[in-house]
Each structure stands twice: as structure tokens, then as C-alpha cells.
Amino acid sequence: MADWKIISGGVTAAQGFRAAGIAAGLKPSGAKDLAAIVSDVDAIAAGVFTTTQVRAACVDYSHQKLQGKAPRARAILCNAGQANAATGEAGWADAVESAEQFGQAMAIPVDRILLASTGVIGQRIKIKEFIDGIPTLVSSLSEDGGADAAQAIITTDLVTKEIAIEAQFGDRTVRMGGTSKGSGMIHPNMATMLGFVTCDAAVSSGLWQEMLSRAADKSFNQITVDGDTSTNDTLYALANGQSRTPAITSPGPDADKLEAMLTFVCQHLAKAIARDGEGATCLVEVEVTGADSDDDARKVARTIAGSSLVKSAIFGRDPNWGRIAAAAGRAGVRFSQDTLAVTLGEFALMKNGQPLEFDRDAASKYLKATAEDGEYLKTDTVKIGVSVGIGSGSGIAWGCDLSYDYVRINAEYTT
Amino acid sequence: MADWKIISGGVTAAQGFRAAGIAAGLKPSGAKDLAAIVSDVDAIAAGVFTTTQVRAACVDYSHQKLQGKAPRARAILCNAGQANAATGEAGWADAVESAEQFGQAMAIPVDRILLASTGVIGQRIKIKEFIDGIPTLVSSLSEDGGADAAQAIITTDLVTKEIAIEAQFGDRTVRMGGTSKGSGMIHPNMATMLGFVTCDAAVSSGLWQEMLSRAADKSFNQITVDGDTSTNDTLYALANGQSRTPAITSPGPDADKLEAMLTFVCQHLAKAIARDGEGATCLVEVEVTGADSDDDARKVARTIAGSSLVKSAIFGRDPNWGRIAAAAGRAGVRFSQDTLAVTLGEFALMKNGQPLEFDRDAASKYLKATAEDGEYLKTDTVKIGVSVGIGSGSGIAWGCDLSYDYVRINAEYTT
Questions:
Q1: Confidence (pLDDT) at B413
Q2: Same structural domain for residues A377 and A230?
Q3: Min Cα–Cα distance to chain A from B282, Å
């Protein structure tokens, strides 16, 4: 159905992008912790940031850079280990210095550099190690560096998250790739969901930002691990035009196709975060239909995916339609309970607001099978379907189950 | 400070109220499961109900009864075992029949009876057992029956919840008592927070409902165990005038005093629910000051008390100010992070948006001591203080920690 295909390469799959990830000594573990994604030429840049009132210095800094008309960027510079949040003026100075030093080493203007950080809140970046690492980072930049960058931005994630796709636009090929990190919305004192997307299409700035905002609403804004927004959440998308395709400057079939690609990439990266949720044993996908609007449907889906009771039931392999219905009811969206329907995989659990007879053992087995046979992101998805009425609004949210390990990871981190 | 004193008797402490709680065979365990609270004369009745779209029959039924001008009630009839939610027309008929049969047995008009149910969602009330139990229920009504009623309304609660107070109004005594139940907002397929308050003051209907709504906003609406609103949440308050005190019909010192008493009773009952949260090892009290409004402060307090990461940290005895600050930031309330301050008990953890040096071991010990030495609702309260700015808005919320047992209880209930 999709008129694109999945390729390798992550953020360096698109033309004119290089990336690197090195170990600069910021993480106590000695793992890779400093990443750069660089475009050969100025790229149209769009961003979506955390809505919290407690923000990291890199978020405020980069948000400013993207405020102007038609903002452009050459590079995303990201460290893992310290979140540089709640660090005051010193943290701001660190952010500025890291950008300036990287700009000098790359010979690119400092206002073309976007920053991101993830790690322990309240800790300043280890700025000496960061600066000392820049020459190695720059010399490591490569057209095959996507995987290294993906590795360097993760913290407590169990796996790296990458995707790339390509599609034909006329007789030319557009490529788009991305990477993300995140495992709790906030980790044990560690922060953040990050997402970086690169693309070689040519697209106007306003359109690109609109596409990214809409794609975020259908992806990163629709995942929940524990309901906790972080101080550092950041999503960037760069489009550098190196595919040499005609510029997309107005709505139409090409814009629609590019946005569909962007949405697919963002959804893939967002689902990968939800699946890697702390302690998760499966991905949970909640699809809501019949709402008055897509916004309403997304809200109901998010509420179900975020319910501790639904999440516990899934961990316990319990086809508990009552908790699903109750979570739908409290989402803050008006609907008649007489039209509520709930499915779990192939099983119809509830219709017209009332429970149906169903094979409880088989439904429980569906939950067990999906969780235990699971190959990552392929078969271990528990699908919940909810219809709330007769409208045409629909939406999907993703989450994970709530396990003993979530409590263990989050209770035993610092003491 | 308070000009009232705590007395015994629960919902039967006030003049002119009787109550009973019996085992009618609705709970599989054979425990008490049918309760009635009856006023000798018509009482001014106020109610606050769940805001969810998926409501039990008893909620819709009783909400209708309280719609008229100056609604009055003689009795609250409550069963535990089956929630009578998601039961359609049959469930509605059960609600109507239970009220009619009880009304006949008591010789009181059916429109003077309020209903409440709690138990498994999607199950109809065992109506035969219910009806068969009514004669015993009626003959058991007594002026000492408060404790029995408190026992009959609980489900997975570990303890019953009761309070009563009395105060002088001129040369006469006003008494007010209450009981509540709840342990998860929704239990393992079990539902509900219920709260019933009785009072022998004379008060006008409009004032009483306003007082109850405000008291609920400062109590039951400020507790969270798992963020899941139930299908059956109900709070009733009856005032029957049997204290023979002058009727309170307009704002003034007497109205203020009565509202303070009502708020105290509701807060006591609400905190008891939070402390009895599934798997909880301590009560968590979050006080927020410095907000632009009380509403804002209450919202921030609720968000912190409901954060899975904060709750896990407390269970892990981790003085994790970063999670508290991050939760405050995402509450949807605007404030400057430069004025944020966080305290934990006596320990100042953060000021002006930046972390302070503090004795981590001592702070962790504070968490340990409060949780392990704790006598119920007395010393086992973890106190979190947050100041978000320079406004005068303040508010308190209550919750509990998130433990392995919460996951166990909710994952292993039905399968």
C-alpha cells in the first residue's frame, strides 16, 4: 500500500548527510555518548519540543534558533549522560560553548547548530570531555555513521532505534531516515525522548514545520510509557534538498506523500520507544474509531494506553475489558456509553456498552502468545480496538505493559 | 486550632441517623455487602458523581433524583460485590427495583432513596439476594450501626474508613460523620471510591451542595492511587437538621464553620483512601504554594502525587527531586522554572530552579523512617513541598507510593 520501501542507513540514508557517534567520557559506563548529524548544505529545519515548564538549556537554546522565518540548520549536536536541565546560567553557558566549539571545528556558523541533551537532570554537561571530544567527533563523521549516532544518543534504552525509507518522486529518489531514544518518558533521574529525522527532499520551511507538527501528533505525542513528560523532549527534522527533486512549496500530492513518509518514520521511531519502555514485555497498540474528531479519538487512545490498570492487566495476561471501557470513559471526551465497543485482537469483548460472551482462555492466550513468541516490533503487539460512537474520527496510541521490572528499575535506581 | 473535636460513631454520630451493614450473599466471600444509612426525617441531600462517560446505573439513577430544586433524601442504599456498570437496561431495572423494595420495607417514598454500588464492572447486582436481604437490613438499622455500614461498603480495602466530629454552634451541638471506601480508583475489575457524610445541622439546599462541591475539590478530587476514575464514584452528604440548631441559609461565620467541618471530614476520608491504595506502603502528601491560583496549585499537586516516577522513587526511598520538578513542569500550569523550590520533609532539595546540596542519606532515611515506623495515617506520611512562584495560590493532594504489590494485585486478579 505504501509507495515507499524500507532501506538501511538510518539518519545517513538521505543524500548529503553524515553522522558520527563517539565515546567522549560523558557516560560513566564509557559507552558512546556524543553524536553529530551534519548536512553538507543548509537544511530546512523544523522542531517540536517538550511542553513542560521545566526545560533543559539545550531546549531553550535550540527553540530560539528555530524561531526566525524559514530556519535553517547544518547540524544536530547531541550528548547523552547529562541532561543539562535545572542547571541555571552555568548550564546555558555550557550549551552556548558546546555549539561554538563545534561550529569552529566544522567551520559552520554557530546559528546553524541545533542542540540536544539527555541524561541525569540537574547535572551540567561534562564540558571539558565534551570539548575534548569534538575533534574526534568531527573526524568520525561519515555517510555510514547513522548507526553510531543512534548508539551514542541512548541512555537506559535496551536497543537502538533506526529507520530509513525511500520513495520515487517523478524520476528521482527521495530518502528519509531517523533515529530516536527513550525508554521511560523520564528515566530513573535520566531524561528524555529524542527523535532526529533527516531527508533529502526540497521543501519549503513552513510546510516542513507543519508536516512535522502533524506527524508528531500522530506519533511521538501518542506514545506513553509512564505519563511523565521530560525536561528534554526534542524532535528535529532536517530537509536538505540534495535529492535534487523539485521543491515542494504548496499542498498537493507530493506534499501529501512527503508527509506520509514523515509520519511513517516518526511512528516507527515512536513505537520503538514504547516497545522499549522500561520493564515492558510487549507493545500495546490502541486504535480508537467512531469519535467526533481525530483529536478526540487520539485522546481516548492515549488515555487507554496510559492507564496503569490496563497496563497491569496486559502484563497479567488478563482480557480485562472493564478497565479498557473505564479508561475510555475518563478520557475527557463526550460519548454515549451505549455505543461503546471493545476488541482485543480478534476477540470482541464488548458491544453497545455491554459485555459479550467470549472465550476468556483464548483471549488470555492471545495476550500470552503475543508477548512470549514476540519478535521485536513484529509479532509482540497487543492490539486493542475501541469504538466510541458513530463519528468518523480515529486515532492510534502506543504504550507498553506495566511490569514488576518497571517498579524495580524506577525504585532502585539511585539508592 | 480547629474548633471541633473528633468523636466516635461514624455516619451514625449525628442525631437522627441510623445505619446497618449485613451479609446478603452478594460477595463471594460471604462478608458484609449490603448497607443502608437512614435519616429519621427528610434530609437536605447533596451529591458529587464520577465525571466519566461510562457510568453505573446507580449513578445515573441517583443523579436524576438530585436534579430537582432543594433535593431531599431519607436513605442511602449501597451494595458491594457488583458495580452494576455496563449492564444496560437490565441494570437500570435492578437499580429501580432495589430502591422500590427498600422504600416499601421502610415505608418511605422511593424518590427519597439514593443508591450506590461497588464491585465487578459488567456484573448485574445479584438482585434476588439483594431483595431477600432487605428485611434483615431494615431490622438491623441502629444508632450504633455506622461501623457495620462502613464494613459492608468496602471491597478490596484493607481497612474501613470512618470519622466523626462535633462542634458547638451557640449552645447546641452539631455532629457530622462519614465513611468511605476505595483502594484503587478502580480495583482489579472492581470499582469505585464512595463517600457518605451525615450531619444533623440545618442548612439550605443550595449552600449544602456548594459546600460539598468545594469540599470534594479539596479532598476526594485531590487523591490519586492510579489515575483511573471509576464508573461508580459517588459522594453523598445528608443534613437532617436534627441538631435543632438555627438553619444556615446564607454565607457567614456559621456557614464557614460548617463548610470547614465538611472539608475536614472529606479530607480525612479521602486521605484514608489514598493511604489504603493498592500496594501502598505510605501516604504521600504534596503541598504546592506560590501558584497563581488555588486551582493551579491543586493541579500541580495532583500531577506530582500521580506521577509513576515520583511514586516509584518514594517506594525506593529515593529523594529524587528531579522527578518531582519534572512532574511539576508538566502539570499544564504556567510558571517560571527559575522560582521552583522543592522540599522533602525538612530537607530543602531545590531552590530557584536549581538543585541544592543536601544530605542524601538523611533524606533517604526520612523516607525509610516514615514508611517503616508508621502508624496508620499518623506518622507514615511522606511530605513533599513545592513552591512554583510568587503567587498566593496553594493546594494539597494525596497519593501513595507505587510498589511491586500494586502490579501484583492488578496483574494477577482474574487470571
A1: 52
A2: no
A3: 14
Q: Is A350 on the interface with B (CB under 8 A)?
A: yes
Residue with cell 441510623: B18
Which position has the grid cell 470547614?
B260
CB contact under 8 A, A330 and B53: yes
- Model confidence pLDDT, tens digit, residues B5-63: 999 999 999 999 999 999 999 999 999 999 999 999 999 999 998 877 888 899 999 99
Out of A240, A275, A310, a domain closes at A275
pTM (predicted TM-score): 0.79
- Whether A201 and chain B come into contact, CB under 8 Å, resolves to no
- What is the CATH classification number for the domain harbouring B98? 3.60.70.12
B205 CA: distance to closest CA in chain A (Å): 29
CA distance A316 to B223: 26
A328, A380: one domain: yes
CB of A114 within 8 Å of a chain B CB? The answer is: no
- Residues B213, B328, single domain; the answer is no
Whether residue A270 sits in one domain with residue A291: no
Number of domains, chain A: 2
| A315-351: pLDDT as tens digits | 888 888 888 998 898 888 999 888 999 999 989 999 9
Using H for helix, E for strand and C for coil, what is the string for A99-162?
HHHHHHHHCCCHHHEEEEEEEECCCCCCHHHHHHHHHHHHHHCECCCHHHHHHHCCCCCCCCEE
User: Which residues does residue B248 pair with via DSSP β-bridges, in sequence order?
Assistant: B203
All three cell numbers of B194: 464512595
B310 and B227 part of one domain: no
A22 & A168 share domain: yes
Domain residues for A14?
5-275
Tell me if residue B292 falls in helix, strand or coil.
coil
Task: Give, to the nearest 10 degrees, the angle between helix A308-315 and helix A321-329.
Answer: 160
The domain boundary residue, chosen from A275, A298, A316: A275
- ipTM score here? 0.72
| Residue A267 identity (one-letter amino acid) | Q
Inter-helix orientation angle B88-106/B57-65, to 10°: 50
